[in-house]
Design a protein that fits this description.
By secondary structure, this protein is an alpha+beta fold. It has a single domain, classed as Cytochrome P450 (Cytochrome p450). It contains 15 helices and twelve strands. The chain has a five-stranded mixed β-sheet with strand order 1-2-8-5-3, with helices on both faces. A three-stranded antiparallel β-sheet has the order 4-11-10. A two-stranded antiparallel sheet has the order 6-7. A hairpin with a 2-residue loop joins strand 6 and strand 7. The longest helix has 32 residues. The radius of gyration is 21 Å and the shape is globular.
Amino acid sequence: MTTSTAPPATEQFARVLRHEHRADPYPHYARMLDRRVSRLDDGSWLVSGYQEIRQLLHDPRTSADRLDPQNTTPKAARSLLLQDPPFHDQLRRVVTQEFIPRIMGMRDHLGELVARLLDAHISAGPGELDVVADLAYPLPVTVICELLGVPTEDEPLFGSLARRLTRGLDPVDTQTEEELRELDRARGELVHYLEGLIARRRSDPGDDLLSGLMFHQDPDDVLDPVQLRVTLGLLLIAGHETTVNLIANGTLALLRHPDVLARLRTDPDLATPLVEEVLRHDPPVQMSGRSALADIDIAGTTIPRGSRIRLMLAAGNRDATRFDYPGRFVPDRRDNAHLGFGGGIHYCVGATLARAEAQIALTALARRLQEPRLVDDPPPYRENAILRGPERLPVAFARLDPDHTPAR
């Protein structure tokens, strides 16, 4: 019998959060799987096994509210991501009814947007582009602005707010006092911006998603002003932040696996399973949270009622009891039921759109970039541990072909 030399769970979790490990946190996630459910020193519980995470995502005895004693926001005014039934069900129903019909049939438009962004860098000779700044960020931002009816000239403002606010998703003890003050300022600025946007749309409604949310056809589901503002803020930020990381992480995977890049260049159908593998192998959302509404028996232990639970999605996605060769990037992996979009009643509302954006963007990069290579490997990463992705992703190329160039 061997004795595990893995460090305590609290130290494992701390290592994942350290920015020095942001480029490759996966060895630390792998060590978490030695203990699939562990108690941290702060009393919260770390869950890393695939089956255990999936069980808790679907367990009605868990709450997305996370029972934060410092959160004094009324339940009805909290984000969809932090809601439980019945408020969650009402909000999700309204958002789904207004959002899904508007994204159907968008693939041609997404292709046009990707082509336009890459056309700005067409070169008959060597060149360079930053995949984050030049494609992965502007694509989903443009799309969510169009869907919501947000003026494109407002993008720099809410883009800055999004970057500041997403840092607040990370554990408080990883943030400086100045970052916490900046977070409060950003929240106030976002409220001010959204209230102005809603007021303008109320007097001049259109056929956009914001107007649909404001004037929903079912009077029983009309959102009150606070719910509307919170939901709009969530869609603005969540509608692009995770997709930025998905496209950037997918580009990294392609450039680190030239054989896969070559396959995608000639077989665009590979994009569908490939994006699913990116979501498993290098997910844009690395962890999530719940709280226990009752004692929960799991993996030979009991998580007591009232406990906070940290669901390590990135660890579960590399669980060898669920996935063969979990550390390998297998673009056509079968039975790839990953945790990249969460699960249960909180499964990502925008998953269909994010998949389409990533599939189209990665296919275009593979087809149009000739002899691409990473300028920096690993690239510089954002501070965020939960929404993990490169800050910049410079890619050098021998040539960037026009969109009509036949696949090679």
